[in-house]
Amino acid sequence: MAFTEDIIETLRMKGFRITPQREMVLEVLSGSERHMTAEEVYRAARKRVSRLNLATVYRTLELLVENCLASRSDLGGGRVVYAPVFLGTLIFRGRELLFTGLNPCFP
Fold it and tell me: What b-and-e string marks burial along 9-29, b requiring 16 or more CB atoms within 10 Å of the CB?
């Protein structure tokens, strides 16, 4: 997964340690086709890494958000979802490929 590797390299360059647990959270989040709650990330990652707790998932997700590598959306009612952030967003509309803008964390 190239995107996961890019995130890992970015975090390492910023001085963060990449544990197997953090790596699995990154893989689950970046491999998802939809936004995920922390609990959903935890359940999916726990299937592959047994030594993982929910607090680690929350800390990792917050680390990603703070470093502009993931977004956090509050849907109300206590439901918060996360998704990986790309430098820009490309979407298909009909037969056209549209660029919707840059990630605001990057100049």
Answer: eebeeeeeeeeebbbbbbbbb
The listed CATH number (1.10.10.10, 1.10.3210.10, 2.60.40.10, 3.40.50.10320) that belongs to domain 2-102? 1.10.10.10
Please, are residues 88 and 97 in contact by the beta-carbon 8 Å criterion? no
Can you give the pLDDT of all 107 residues of the chain as single tens digits?
A: 566 787 888 888 889 999 999 999 999 998 888 899 999 999 999 998 888 999 999 999 999 999 888 889 998 898 999 988 764 444 445 555 445 555 555 54
Structural element, H or E, at residue 81: strand 79-84
Q: Kindly report each contact of residues 46-55 with a partner whose C-beta sits within 8 Å and lies 24 or more positions away, as own/partner.
A: 48/24, 49/20, 49/21, 49/24, 51/20, 51/21, 52/21, 52/24, 52/25
Q: How far apart are CA 89 and CA 16, in angstroms?
A: 26
